[in-house]
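Reader question, answered in our methods column.
A reader sent in the components of a multi-part assembly and asked whether the whole thing could be modeled at once rather than chain by chain. We filled in our standard form and ran it. Here is what they sent:
COMPLEX SIZE: two components
ENTRIES:
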Amino acid sequence: MLAHNLFLAWKSLRKNPVLSLLMIGAIGMGIGVCMTTLTVYTLMSNNPIPQKSDVLYAVQLDSWDPNEAWGEPNLPPSQLNWRDTQALLKSDIPKRQVAMFRSGFAVQEPSNKLPAFIAEARVTTRDFFEMFDVPFIYGGGWDAPADRDQQQLVVLTKKTNDKVFGGTDSVGKTLKLDDREFRVVGVTEDWKPTPKFYDLNNGSFAKPEELYVPFGLIEPLQLKSFGNTNGWKPEQINSFQDFLNAEEIWLQYWAELPDTKTREAYQAFIDQYVREQKKLGRYPRPLNNRLTNVVDWMKVNEVVTEDAKVLLGLSFLFLAVCLLNIVGLLLSKFLGKSGETALRRALGATRLQIMQKNLVEVGLIGLLGGVLGLLLALAGLQGVKQLYRNYEKLVQLNGELLLVALGIALVSSLIAGLYPAWRAARLAPAGLLKTQ
Amino acid sequence: MNLFQKLALDAGPILRALTRSRAGAVLIALQCAITLAIITNAIFIIQDRLKKMARPSGVDVENVFSMSVIPFAPNFDTKGSIEADLRALRALPGVVDAAVVNSFPLLQSGGSSMYAAKPGAKGEEYVGAARYEVDAHTLNTLGLKLIAGRDFREDEIRGREINSQYENPVAILTKAYAEKMFPPDGNAVGKTLYDGNQVAIPIVGVVERAQAPWISWGELEYSAFFSNYRLSFARYIVRAAPGERDRLMPQVEKLLSESNSGRLIESMKSQTDIEARTYGEYRAMAIILVSVIVLIVIITGLGIVGLASFNVNARKKQIGTRRALGAQKGDIVRYFLVESWLITTAGAVIGAGLSFGLSYWMVNTFDLPPLDWHYIPVGVCFLWVLGLVAVLVPARRASQLAPALATRSV
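And here is the structure of the entire assembly that came back:
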């Protein structure tokens, strides 16, 4: 029966090619526009680390200006100062914890064949790799002492290892960073969390770092942040040590808290720490320390841009216009065929059968429109890629979205077809047959 | 009978016909309504973005280019290297001037600080400004217009390490910041600015305009220049003679990379590129919205054509009868035009409400200004034109039908 209905539907589409193309085109455009914005939106709101997103917490301490919150509504700053990270790192409550910031080095390979180049670096404590599930090709992270003492060790990413060591196992080899010798301890696999949740200060979709060095090097090498540094308090800063002791915030801090008990214990710990600091005359604002999990962190930091939301809203309105359009066209089409319908009814077809036949035709239009929509979405995403830098990772259609597109096309066209199909099936056959 | 009376007479039968087969008309009206809401809001957002993109940065965008300077060798003579580089750059034929800065308009990266107009000021008396740490060639290199006082003198310029205090700084303010700090006339020259550490900074000049580096900063025109440039995270800016920029950029890159191996030159970009990159998302949004408008107009237009064609087919007999009873071709065309006008008008009325509804949602959900009502009448006129143009072809086809049709059965 379905096969027969499909055959009839195909014949009917071919009989009225302009109208059919118009309908398929309308569905296709609606789906194409919606899928383009939906793809960008879903990938922007993607959970970059689903297996751990509910145990990883961004740590915020409200060390800010007594007269003005860091952000509204009463948000504590998104970064920490040096002194506080030193105090927090001493806690053994979190299963893992990391203090880190973005920096950069001039890299020279040992044989000096390549010209020196600047590499983005992350200066971090060792837990970074295990905490964020960073996969390694060779070796691994450094040991705990490197987080405190001067040990010139480096973890390279695959890209940097390919560039400097031609992709070979470079563990144990040395290279120069800012003209100092560093020993390679590990090489990571390509790892591109999207969005780059662990440091949203420097672009939510920024490229990953090219190498990692231990936190213990900050003081001896006077490493400077390539990211944002913010302050609220006028302070006399005449040396690097002054800067480290200042209220300036420039470090990101994350803690892995596997269960509610640990989280509560850690919240109590940071609150207690801040209360003690208040006694020393620091922390002029009311207690407002926060632990925020990955998904909420991305919401607080507005990773999904307003433009993406506005466009998503507009594109669904656009789809609504396309569907209204199709309802109108289908109505014309089915009512225009009322002679044929009346004949079928007179020959014994029930209303239900007429409706089924019409809906199969609508479904076919929906599917064809969906396929066209996917092609248009691909073109649309190419366009988005041209228009926005840094969005390469955001504009890939995956299998899931493909099914969503076809699903939306089919369901929305069937909804659109319901009323016209019903109207056509309801016609009384006798009156129409008389005029033939 | 004049045209207006004719139109008024037409309206009655058309409305009666519409109420008998209303589904198609209602669908078109709804389409028009949503289309109006999308178009008005989209154009409003586009206008907003275009307006922001048109704000002058104060910089001679066409001829300026810049690069980062990253010293990396230990015990590197950064100050000597910067001075040598700048001398070499200024000596190049085609270079108008070159300077060392920490940041410049449109860069999207830089620093800001709070300053007060008197010593010992309290919290609210401090006002933030973008902080440009520069040398004596900066105003000329960026192409900024001095409107009061004077430029920095060479003997006022110091190179400063990142974690150190200013050394005898003097300042040049933008007009907007000067007016904010020294109301009402912004006569700042000869007065003093105080930073958070109570360092007194004499003001020597005022420039007409220089935006802060971040385009979405609230006080985009509040900037201040200080006569201490920074030794780390420094940038060179170069102003080329008109038409010389593209020739100079690779030449400068080669010159600097060969002259010194203790520092790297990175991200050399023309100010035109920086502007395009900085406003990239605004431009992208405008382009996407224009595409959405074009597509929706096509879809709605075709919808109107479709409905009218269907109506022409369904009404062949009536049209034939009217023609047989003496109606002119023009009367038939007019019938369809008036019908379309009535439908789009109904849609426009709903659409006006919908436009404000959509705007209300966007204002409440996002950081967008509310829709300006002027956009509604413009949108409605556009919708009318769309409705009339779309219906013209089917209507003309209807007018070509032979009166004899009336006597035949379909």
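What stands out: Chain A touches chain B through 59 residues (CB under 8 Å). Strands of chain A lie at 56-60, 96-108, 117-124, 136-139, 153-157, 174-177, 180-188, 211-214, 252-256, 290-293.
Send us your own complexes using the same form.
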